[in-house]
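The records we work with from here on pair a chain with its fold. Each token is a code from a learned vocabulary of local backbone shapes. A record is reproduced here so that you can trace the correspondence yourselves:

_____
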Amino acid sequence: MAHLAHHDPLTGLANRAALAAHLATTLERAKATHASFAVFSIDLDHFKEANDVFGHAAGDDLLCTISRRLQTAAPEAFIARMGGDEFTVVLAMDDRSASAKDVADRLFESAAGKFEIRGQHISIGVSIGAAIYPKDGENAAALMANADAALYRAKADGRRMVQFFDPEMDKRLRERYALQRDLRSAVGHGELVLHYQPQARMDGEIFGFEALARWNHPKHGLISPNAFVSLAEQDGTIVEIGEWTLRQACRDAASWPSPLQIAVNLSPVQFRFGDLVGLVHSILYETGLAPGRLELEITEGVLIRDRATALSVLRRLKALGVRVSMDDFGTGYASLSSLQAFPFDKIKIDRSFVSGVGSNVQSAAIVRTILSLGNALALPVIAEGVETEDERAFLMREGCPEIQGYLVGRPHPIALYKDVTNGLSPGSAFGEPEDTTAPQALGVTR
């Protein structure tokens, strides 16, 4: 019973209670001897998805295997499992011991990589945050909180890394938590709005708009998706936001002249939760928008995590009559295989290739290749991020049929494009409507 009270029953590692006792003892010793020690917060990246795909038994075996690897990598350290896929390591340091960085690197290398579990090959990543006594905290609560802040920063910066705490992290973490908390109620409080960016043919005719969500925060003002989408994807709020965006965009577009199309971005998270096909079908029925006028934009990230499920969802969406385009084409490692696996209706050349394309030889070669590929596959191509007349001229010479970007028009409330949406004119690209009242969005605007 005494052993069970202080050890995790699955892995045999110390548990929270044992960690608290060990930290108290380590703090007393460090204060008496003016020594230092490190606290590491460790979290496995995307463990939940692996657990869901391969099953809980495989997930438990993976946790046990990683626990043994951590003990082997740092036999001198105290290692506890906090629950789920979270671990805490306490490392006493003196003149003879390895540095905290060296031990963090060993822990990182031991926990990340490919594992063969029950005949399945599972690839897992790891993120680690570290705090050092006494500079990062003089009590257990402060050290644990700051190690967690460093871990959170590692995850926010892309995961699969080690981060050591610095005081700025605490401020950024508090701000990020506050935004994430506020975001959970943004839809219910009516704080989300849609801005629309026009898409045009090379003759200047606007044929459609892309819907881009903005968050009208009561304190911070207008916030662009670059600043809140990743937060929403982390806690699942993106599902609610995505549903609101799709419904509002379809409702708005249903009132436009029938040739005008509407493009809406889908997050990979929306493919994993809920009935996306059923949602799209019900929104089309509810708003009366013709399916052929709706284009759903996805990135190849949708196809990477659970390819079979994603392809099934995409095929069912196409069966509804909606169009599906691949966004940010060329930026990932599986773009070509994704085109082979699914009959997309359009590909979008990423803005990173379009910027300065007239003077950048490599970008020009990539754009030409994508346009040739689209032509060979009879796939329409649209270039996004077009900001200058030189970029448009290059794309026109190379046969790109459609463009989107600041040269055509910035994202604005749809009222600023009323001549187009009221059917009074086909729209005149390369000269957007003036809006002297619109505030600048917080974050980078698409």
User: Anything to note?
Assistant: Residues 436-446 have pLDDT under 50 and may be disordered. The radius of gyration is 26 Å.
